[in-house]
Amino acid sequence: xxxxxxxxxxxxxxxxxxxxxxxxxxxxxxxxxxxxxxxxxxxxxxxxxxxxxxxxxxxxxxxxxxxxxxxxxxxxxxxxxxxxxxxxxxxxxxxxxxxxxxxxxxxxxxxxxxxxxxxxxxxxxxxxxxxxxxxxxxxxxxxxxxxxxxxxxxxxxxxxxxxxxxxxxxxxxxxxxxxxxxxxxxxxxxxxxxxxxxxxxxxxxxxxxxxxxxxxxxxxxxxxxxxxxxxxxxxxxxxxxxxxxxxxxxxxxxxxxxxxxxxxxxxxxxxxxxxxxxxxxxxxxxxxxxxxxxxxxxxxxxxxxxxxxxxxxxxxxxxxxxx
Length: 323
Description:
It is built from 2 helices and 25 strands. The protein is mainly β. The strands form 5 sheets. It has a 9-stranded antiparallel beta sheet with strand order 18-17-25-24-23-22-21-20-19, with helices on one face. It has a 4-stranded antiparallel beta sheet with strand order 1-3-6-5, with no helix packed on it. It is elongated.
């Protein structure tokens, strides 16, 4: 019986030493270190890249195994080579790239695809302006720029800004001479255009003549006076001269007279009579001598232009009437 109690006492003591030893071993083990994520960082906050060009930025911190997500590859896209991201521009605009890493981090960077140099379709323009008039115009188109354009003339007594429609700047001639126009975009890029304004006594350019001949509706025009859709458009012989005319019951009319016939070519002894009045007896205004030229005759209609210079002013007009 004593042996039994002695055995139990020894076993209890052994177990006590065992538990104490295990507890001591556990206390000697270091506490586990908590895992921390490394945030993604770049060497720039915003990427600026020229349209049609490429640039590179670097990932300076992160969890590795990087990937790039392109928000709008139609504007610009990025490709990875290690920690270097190459951004290639396609067209002007603002977009972004999102970089991810192996630890599940994501970071976005803004990409501004823009022009660093403004380009124009021409850097010098010549405005042909009819003598005594201020209706000469020329267009300059921005072929490379960042939009929201403004334009300033150095001398508005020579040329002024007529209109700005998107990337097209219209210049209006004011007086003969030379000046410059400076165009600026939203990013502050500028470009200067040399402008020359010249006066002419030629009533219509070749392109303007083509436009006139492309229309076959009855029309008569002289200076600021134009025919209405009512009245008679015709031709006849009057006092031995050819006459083409628009006449609204004798109250208003434009008539041109000349020697020769209606074949294409320049005519002689031209004269223009103009009347716009509600008084039947009011006299017309007579312009003479007038240069008359038939520019087209297709057998059914005839097209002509006329002009004269008086008091440093070019009077001019055109007509299309049925033969």
